[in-house]
Write a structure and sequence with these properties.
By secondary structure, the protein is mainly alpha-helical. Helices cover about 75% and strands about 0% of the residues. The N and C termini lie far apart (about 35 Å).
Length: about 90
């Protein structure tokens, strides 16, 4: 039987995920700044990084909820990675 994961392990794993995603997509801060610029142009007002992070956090929590309440097992998305994403966006 698997031992339950500890809060320390969750934070460590989320940190590894953030580091790996940053190497894939570039620095998270840069991505958030660019997203804020695009959103600012579209909305006609300044969108700050916290608003972008809040939107991604909401998006991530929604995806996790959809993945974990569905009857079918998702073939294209790892539930564990999706579970860690809100931690990384919240940390930003």
């Amino acid at each position: 039987m698997n031992k339950p994961i500890t809060p320390k392990q969750i934070v460590r794993n989320a940190g590894k995920l953030l580091k790996g995603k940053s190497s894939d997509y570039g620095a998270r801060g840069k991505n958030f700044k660019e997203a804020a610029l695009v959103a600012s142009v579209i909305r006609g007002r300044v969108i700050d990084l916290r608003e972008v992070a809040a939107a991604w956090l909401g998006f991530s929590l929604s995806r996790f909820g959809n993945l974990t309440t569905s009857e079918k097992k998702p073939p294209n998305e790892a539930i564990l990675i999706t579970a860690y994403e809100p931690i990384t966006y919240g940390a930003f």
